[in-house]
Amino acid sequence: MAKSDDPKGKITIEEPQNEALETTQTTSDIKKVGFPSFKGTIKEKAENSLDILFDIPMKVVVELGRTVLKIKDILELGPGSIIELDKLSGEPVDILVNGSLVAKGEVVVIDENFAIRVSDVAMDRQDEGTENAN
After folding, report:
1. In the predicted model, what is the mean pLDDT of the chain?
2. Which one of 18, 45, 62, 102 has the fewest CB atoms closer than 10 angstroms to its CB?
3. Domain spans of the chain?
């Protein structure tokens, strides 16, 4: 509210002009916004949901065996050193995907390259994967 002095000594109070009230629109000026329908796309995405997972790279590790060495023994390693592992020769190797045991296999040689022939797929991967991590 603003005060103004009248020349006759009277004080008058003026009400503020609310510009927002003057610029209100009528309902005929308001337009509805249209949105596209998502019904068909949700169904299509559900059908193809596994397809997007097929191209995700996963870390695959073949573990020949494990051992524990003291730092002193590690520092003495050099060309020709032999490290004894906890698995026997010819025993199946573990195939790990992102750290979880998924299968066992045997080492084969193809054109002078090592490869793994899968011999057994782990059915209960969680139990064996956590057991292997210890």
Report:
1. 77
2. 18
3. 60-134
